[in-house]
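Hello Y.,

Per our agreement to keep a running log of every chain we model this quarter, I'm adding this entry. I've kept the format consistent with earlier entries: sequence first, then predicted structure.
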Amino acid sequence: MATSRQLTVDLADTEAIIGRPLTIRVRDSSCRPVEGATVRTATGSKTARTNADGYCQLTFHSPGFWQLFVTRDSDERHTYRPTTTLVRAITAGAATQRTRRAIACRV
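Predicted structure for the entry above:
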């Protein structure tokens, strides 16, 4: 009998800089990396598959909010429940301004 596991997504940041790869890690509910999971945007225009360590990368070329869908086909031992997450793609200039504002607020 297959065990059901929930997929989870780890992002270093929920904002991605346009033109730079965003690293995504997929794990299961037992915190184990999931190889072969598919990460795709809602429009299906971007897709990546995780490696043996559960990592993949996506690069966004236009600003906005991108919903990511994460799925994994079942195997003999496990079924995987899909998950979603939201990423905001911003320009490098916007990221720099955000950093400057944060530093100014600390002074």
